[in-house]
Amino acid sequence: MLAVRRALLAAFVMLAPALSPAAETDGKTGLVLAPGFEVVSTQCTVCHSARLISQNRSDREGWLAMIRWMQDTQGLWPLGEDEDLVLDYLATNYGPLSAGRRRPLPASLLPDL
Ligand code: HEC
């Protein structure tokens, strides 16, 4: 009986993150609590609110472009070896809502052949 309970508990613990409707967030910054959170909350809230981050979504490339833009024009320092962790965190927790190609154009918008 105990073994069954343990197995159920283990299954629940493993499935819970996938099932939970919203990820747990930090009360102060509102950022998702996940690996990389500490680095992002210290490095990325110096100049602006964390809301600027949580209101944005992008893939890794897009996040990298935003970081480079801040580095080139807004005085953001090099993130060094933290950069990968920061990008992983952002792309994982603030990735695009719908991935993949845009939907095909409707036939009415296609040129006549
Ligand atoms: C040195 C100051 C500084 C730091 C540190 C900083 N930013 Fe920014 N960031 C800015 C400025 C300035 C803006 C423009 C704000 C505005 O438009 O009001 C900005 C804008 C943004 C935007 C909005 C971009 C857009 O296209 O609308 C995002 C997202 C963002 N930052 C994320 C981050 C992340 C992630 C980090 C940590 C890696 C970070 N910022 C660290 C200065 C900084």
Structural write-up:
With 113 residues, the chain is mainly alpha-helical. The radius of gyration is 20 Å and the shape is flat. The site of heme C has 16 residues, from helix 3, helix 4 and helix 5.
Quickly list its features:
113 residues, mainly alpha, Cytochrome Bc1 Complex, Chain D, domain 2, 0% strand, flat, binds heme C
Using the CA coordinates, give the radius of gyration: 20 Å
The major pleated sheet works out as: none
CATH superfamily of one domain, called what? Answer: Cytochrome c-like domain
Report the sheet-strand fraction. under 5%
Classify the secondary structure makeup into a structural class: mainly alpha
Distance between the termini: 69 Å
The distinct bound ligands, ions and cofactors come out as: heme C
Number of helices: 5
CATH architecture of one domain: Orthogonal Bundle
- Secondary-structure element series: HHHHH
Give the CATH class of one domain.
Mainly Alpha
**What percentage of residues falls in helices of 4 or more residues?**
40-55%
Low-confidence spans: none
Shape: flat
Tally of strands: 0
CATH topology (fold) name of one domain: Cytochrome Bc1 Complex, Chain D, domain 2
**Can you give the mean pLDDT?**
87
